[in-house]
Hints:
Radius of gyration: 17 Å
Number of helices: 2
Largest sheet: 4 strands, mixed
Distance between the termini: 12 Å
Structural class: alpha+beta
Number of domains: 1
CATH class: Alpha Beta
Amino acid sequence: MEVSNLESIPGKNIVEYIGLVSGSTVRAKHIGRDIMAGLKNLVGGELKGYSELLQESRNEAMERMVAQARELGANAVLNVRFSTSSVAQGAAELYVYGTAVRID
């Protein structure tokens, strides 16, 4: 499965537009990560616990989007975009979406 944030893939022809596909995950903060983030705020630097949480969330949402595209018969997802939103105190949704197509 080819996944791209471009509207097309150079050298490939789109033979069928299938439609919008998406994947999402909702994640809550972890108390251990919150404690470490609080300490890191005192001295500065990357909040590695949150960086890891976001990377895991992106991967899970992408896997769900790709699975949906496969079920629809696509072999590529183009124009991929990410979005986030707060759904509750301490919890956020990471949403990824794109256009499922068949390319040759």
